[in-house]
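>> received
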Amino acid sequence: MLDVRRMQVLRAVITSGSVTAAAAHLGYTPSAISQQISALEKETGMTLLRRAGRGVAPTAAGLLLTRYTAVISQHLAEAETALADLRAGRAGRLALRYFASVGPTLLAPALARVRHEHPGVAIDPKLADPDEALSEVDRGDADLAVVVRRPTEAHHQGIRVIHLLDDAYQAVLPVGHPLAAERVVDLADLAGEPWVGSEPPGPCLAPVIDACAAAGFSPDFVAQSEDYATAQGFVAAGLGVSLVPRLGLSARHPGVVIRRVRRPEPIRTIHVVIRESSLEQPALRTLLDALRDSTGQ
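>> returned
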């Protein structure tokens, strides 16, 4: 493989017209310049310079190589500029994965801040289920994912897991329910009720099931919804009661009341999962700071 630095020395000699002039421009000795040219001729197997009066002139091979050197030098300069822009957060791409209920409450204001501070960075946010989001970060297809995780889940090598928020579930009751007059509802008081499911099987449903088990019962699901708005609508229609996390209650149905839950209080733990190598990106660090600010914690 040809040595790019030696090619650039050859170009300097041809442009300057002599080894001595090129040495002065590059800050080398004439002997060092001659050694670089000799090494390049050995690499190519061809003579690159010929005597021309008191200076030198390129052979056909030297002229051909110089043309390519000009192109390579331009691409190198462009690469250096692009790397500088990426390092400074003026360019690049930020791929992130998230689940629905953090979109309007946490992610939207955080992304607005990133776009304001790093307008040259392309942002690629996509909805993904937690398992797939983790896999995408692990494979390098995404830089960051906002997920619900159990505290005991193992961490993958090269992945950093950062606690973002504890999101408590709250009781969603139909207007006129006997417990609607209470400010706080004991979870055990919902044991005999028909339940409307608000979560799909997985890490978001697990804290609900675990909390009910700790309160001594298993919820009797008579209707299932994987959408918080629909779950509230089912509750308002009198199909049952439900638990919905606080972040999922940004839009409330007029036919329900929301009450805190205790003994125990079900909580889902929200984390940010990041590739360690991606932390070099200024835009990602801005996003992480903005997500923390969005939680108000």
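>> The mean pLDDT is 88.
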